[in-house]
Specification:
The complex is a heterodimer of chains A (729) and B (159).
Chain A lengths: L14 E4 L4 E7 L6 E4 L3 H11 L1 E8 L4 E5 L8 H13 L6 E5 L4 H4 L11 E2 L5 H28 L6 E4 L2 E4 L4 E4 H4 L3 E4 L28 H4 L16 E7 L7 E3 L2 H5 L4 E7 L2 E6 L2 H10 L2 E3 L9 H14 L4 E6 L2 H7 L2 E9 L11 E6 L6 E5 L3 E2 L6 H5 L6 E5 L13 H12 L5 E4 L2 H6 L7 E9 L5 E10 L3 H4 L11 E8 L14 H19 L3 H8 L4 H14 L10 E9 L2 E11 L6 E11 L6 H20 L5 E2 L2 E2 L18 E6 L16 H14 L5 E2 L3 H9 L1
Parallel strand pairs in A: 5-6, 12-23, 18-33, 20-22, 25-26, 29-32
Antiparallel strand pairs in A: 1-11, 2-3, 2-4, 4-5, 7-21, 8-9, 9-10, 12-15, 13-16, 14-15, 17-26, 18-24, 19-20, 19-23, 24-25, 27-28, 28-29, 30-31
Helix pairs in contact in A: 2-4, 15-19
Chain B lengths: L1 E7 L2 E7 L5 H8 L18 E4 L2 E4 L13 E3 L11 H8 L9 H14 L5 H8 L9 H13 L8
Parallel strand pairs in B: 1-5
Antiparallel strand pairs in B: 1-2, 3-4, 3-5
Helix pairs in contact in B: 2-5
The chains are: A alpha+beta (729), B alpha+beta (159).
Chain lengths: 729, 159
């Protein structure tokens, strides 16, 4: 392990000694070098420092040796409650058994990620960017803490700093054989006047990693097997009221409550709040709020979405695809359109995908308490956070951001839905009505689905020109739909050597609420791209793996994932009678992934059975390998759910499906027999893995279906009716 | 308002509620047993699974009046206080939960299975567990954990 760096030698002009037997919070500058120490119990001093000086406390160390590391990200099942503290503990050289983890405050100047562009710090757990966005920052912060501990021991023993090093949770002086535990050092902390920032070196050599790349049991799991893990929906406060909102089934419609007096007289009703987009019912008990909502009579205005029909929208999309108007070009490399026009051989296909909903298991909810004067608010919520770390509450209530305190809770699933804050600002507006009593706003499952924010539907036309040697010389991808970047993500092919590429968006606004849904546009776009690649392979009589190998001739990292999945899936071995394999490759959030699945089809019912799934990923340095595998497994199962089952229809502006009985998710009986995931060893920076499995599914299944039947599946989801239609077509 | 006397997690408990109040809300909001989750309210997801006299039931569909006096209700909090139940140990060893929201219901459903059938086949596990949804997609690890608990394979790394 490296102990010092020539570029980070401190200038010891001032020394501070703090004697604390109870414990210390090491407060280390986020932007500059402002090391300070506070007693753990001196919360006023810590808070003052945090607010006034924009400095961050990442760790609390107490004399019993307990090391409490703060996690700045949402924990929605992706494992941030473990992987981020592991990064910090690695550089701090903490014994993992001594580590406890808590959520950090929602203060983005202090705890914001560096992963959202230069010169800004944002707390946002989205786009699989948590690990990659915090990796360097947490390594540096952990290294600074270790530096302070080494410095303190050197002062205590009166030996040169360079002679002291660390072992897990202790500082050691090799030549004298002395050592002192981190806990015992708490009462001997000396603060150097300046801290190295470790930006130019001094961090651990990755070959010395003791925690990163090994598997630590996730810190949140023990509480998730005994009911103790707290989600926002579990929060109960003294005097708490319950609320539900009747929102327009047609988004954007304005409500008029016509029997307010009657509803107000119902048992337990405390207040009825007329919001712009709905009517809120606040009651002593949840069932009273639900009863009031049920009894309410509301007239709704027309809205942009009125009359919208998602099935019919495809006709409009087709007309725009065929006749224009042209949209915005998002990729123009070479001259794909000219090459395609002059090509001797063209492969072409139109692909569709219906709306899907997040349908996370914990329905949206928030608990909010506003002070009687309306000037302060506390919020208990499970959130993926956002560009406003106070989740829109200051604007909703017209109060200062520093007057809003967010208490982060576990998320019962996010998948993109919980990076919206509609369910938080609604809660704030209702709590204001009944201040200072706290309010738990609950969305029912029906609210969650019918007032959802969906992954957009789209129509895609992909075309490939092929020359006499079977090479793809040009690729064109035209996309019609609503949602701009929500449909555009994943449309580029950076890892395939295709000299002429063109991609264009033709946007058609409908007023339907849309949102990032795990892997965003990558699901539909990679479906179209990877299926056309297989159609070329089939038409040219080339094995799909061989064709992709050629396309990856300039992308060795991509090729390594392909070779690995070919190996583990036994790609070159024939499947048993009635089964076939299909493959796909894609990049999402920096992770390169190749997948293979093996399927069979019931030709009477049209039901596809996925027997096995294999995938290989290059995700850079992996913090928690088993957790990466868990993310891929889950991503593939969720992908299968969306590809085989999920379909949200809109008729006359209203969502047709309303609960799990008609918006069906994949159940255990349809899970594959096995999912085998291989992680490619890498020393590159960590990349995002949470979404990498999901978009593999549609293309792997459709390509396996093509291999098995010679027929094409080009409309997501692959319901039994559509499969039968393809088989008989 | 009526009074109901049930045995909840081994303790005789008196609950005041309307006859048509739903057990799920009584457990969660009145008694603070929040490990039992609301997911759909129509018995489609299994997040609210508890045991009624040992059998798995969906608390979101049970009214107070439908539960007889003295009946035994067991929630996830009553399975063990210290994660010592074989299924809890297996769940930790296999690192099953992701978001974790459905897992109380999954474990309660699985506990009922092992009580009836200590050595279930994979097919029997899938049939028994099929009513419990997991959006994070942890099904394969759930199967692994149930199998592990049934086989008593909980030695190293189990806590």
């Amino acid at each position: 392990m490296k102990t010092d760096s020539s570029t980070s030698t401190p200038n010891l002009t001032r020394r501070t000694f703090i004697k604390q037997t109870a414990g210390i919070s090491l407060v280390i500058g986020a932007t500059g070098l402002v090391p300070q120490l506070f007693s753990c119990t001196d919360t006023a001093a810590i808070n003052k420092a945090l607010i006034s000086e924009s400095i961050g406390a990442w760790v609390r160390l107490t004399s019993d040796g307990i090391i409490t590391i703060l996690n700045p990200a949402a924990e929605m099942g992706q494992g941030s409650m473990t992987s981020l503290p592991v990064i910090f503990a690695e550089e701090m050289d903490a014994d993992w058994d001594d580590v406890r983890v808590e959520f950090s405050p929602q203060e983005s100047d202090i705890y914001g990620s560096e992963g959202w562009g230069p010169n800004r710090r944002i707390m946002l757990s989205a786009g699989s960017r948590v690990t990659k966005g915090y990796f360097n920052l947490l390594r540096r912060a952990g290294a600074q803490v270790r530096y302070v501990l080494r410095y303190s021991a050197a002062e205590l023993w009166e030996v040169p700093l360079k002679e002291v090093t660390s072992a897990p949770s202790k500082i050691i002086h090799n030549s004298s054989g002395r050592s002192i535990s981190y806990g015992d050092l708490v009462s001997h902390i000396f603060m150097p006047a300046e801290l190295p920032d470790f930006k130019e070196g001094g961090l651990k050599d990755p070959v010395d990693f003791r925690l990163i790349g090994k598997d630590q049991p996730r810190t949140d799991i023990a509480g998730k097997v005994n009911g103790q893990a707290q989600f926002a929906i579990d929060v109960r406060l003294p005097g708490m009221l319950y609320a539900v909102i009747e929102r327009g089934r047609v988004h954007g419609a304005k409500p008029t409550l016509t029997n307010k007096t009657d509803v107000e007289a119902m048992a337990g009703i405390i207040s009825i709040a007329e919001l712009g987009h709905g009517i809120g019912f606040i009651a002593e008990k949840i069932e009273q709020a639900l009863a009031a909502r049920k009894a309410s009579q509301i007239e709704w205005s027309e809205a942009e979405m009125s009359g919208f029909d998602s099935e019919r929208a495809y006709e409009e999309y087709s007309a725009i695809m065929n006749k224009g108007p042209r949209g915005r070009a998002v990729t123009e490399e070479g001259n794909a359109r000219r090459v395609i026009r002059g090509a001797s051989k063209i492969y072409k296909g139109d692909f569709k995908n219906d709306y899907v909903c997040h349908a996370q298991m914990e329905p949206l909810n928030s608990v909010v308490q506003v002070t009687e004067d309306g000037q302060h608010a506390e919020v208990w919520v499970g959130t993926q956070q956002g560009f406003d770390s106070k989740l829109g509450v200051p604007a909703a209530l017209g109060i200062a951001p520093e007057n809003v305190k967010i208490h982060m809770q576990y998320l019962g699933g996010g998948f993109g839905r919980r990076s919206m804050t509609d369910f938080v600002t609604e809660g704030a507006l209702l709590a204001k009505e009944v201040a200072p009593r706290p309010v738990k706003l609950m969305w029912t499952r029906e609210d969650d689905l019918t007032y959802g924010a969906y992954r957009p539907m789209s129509l895609q036309r992909v075309e490939a020109a092929v020359n006499g040697q079977g090479q793809i010389t040009a690729f064109s991808h035209i996309l019609v739909g609503d949602g701009d970047n929500l449909i555009a993500s994943g449309i580029r092919n950076e890892y395939y050597d295709i000299p002429n590429q063109y991609a264009e968006l033709r946007i058609v606004p409908h007023g339907v609420r849309l949102k990032h849904w795990r892997a965003v546009g990558h699901g539909p776009n990679k479906f179209a791209i990877e299926c056309l690649i297989d159609e070329v392979a089939r038409g040219e009589g080339i094995d799909p793996a061989v064709l992709r190998r050629r396309l990856m001739n300039k992308s060795p990292r991509a090729l390594a994932t392909l070779e690995e999945v070919v190996r583990i899936s036994g790609w070159n071995d024939p499947s048993q009678e009635g089964r076939a394999k299909g493959m796909a490759f894609l990049e999402r959030s920096g992770t390169l992934s190749s997948g293979v699945c093996e399927i069979s089809v019931d030709r009477n019912s049209g039901k596809i059975k996925v027997h096995r799934f294999w995938s290989a990923h290059d995700a850079g340095i992996v913090i928690q390998p088993d957790n990466v595998r868990a993310q891929v497994e889950g991503g593939i199962v969720m992908g299968m759910s969306s590809v085989l089952k999920e379909k949200l229809d809109i008729v006359d502006g209203r969502a047709v499906q309303s609960n799990y009985h008609d918006y069906q998710l994949l159940r255990m009986e349809d899970a594959p027999e096995s999912i085998e995931t291989s992680i490619i060893a890498s020393d590159g920076p960590p990349q995002g893995v949470g979404e990498s499995g999901t978009p593999l599914v549609a293309c792997c299944i459709a390509n396996a279906f093509l291999a098995l039947t010679g027929k094409r599946l080009r409309h997501l989801p692959f319901t039994p009716e559509r499969v039968l239609e393809a088989l008989n077509g | 308002m009526a009074q109901f006397q049930w045995t909840i997690n081994g303790k005789k408990t008196t609950v005041e509620a309307d006859e048509n109040e739903i057990l799920l809300w009584i457990l969660r909001e009145q008694l603070g047993l929040t490990g039992t989750k609301y997911g759909c309210g129509i018995a489609q997801c299994g997040s609210c699974t508890v045991h009624l006299d040992g059998s798995p039931v969906r608390a979101c569909m049970l009214t107070a009046a439908s539960i007889r006096p003295g009946q035994k209700i067991t929630t996830i909090e009553g399975l063990s206080t210290d994660n010592s139940h074989p299924l809890q140990r297996a769940w930790i060893k296999a690192q099953v939960p992701q978001c974790g929201y459905c897992q109380s219901g999954q474990i309660m459903q699985a506990a009922a299975l092992l009580h009836e059938n200590p050595n279930p086949s994979r097919e029997e596990i899938v049939t028994h567990m099929n009513g419990n949804l997991c959006r994070c997609g942890t099904y394969l690890r759930i199967i692994e954990a149930i199998d592990m608990a049934a086989r008593g394979d909980l030695a190293a790394g189990d806590d």
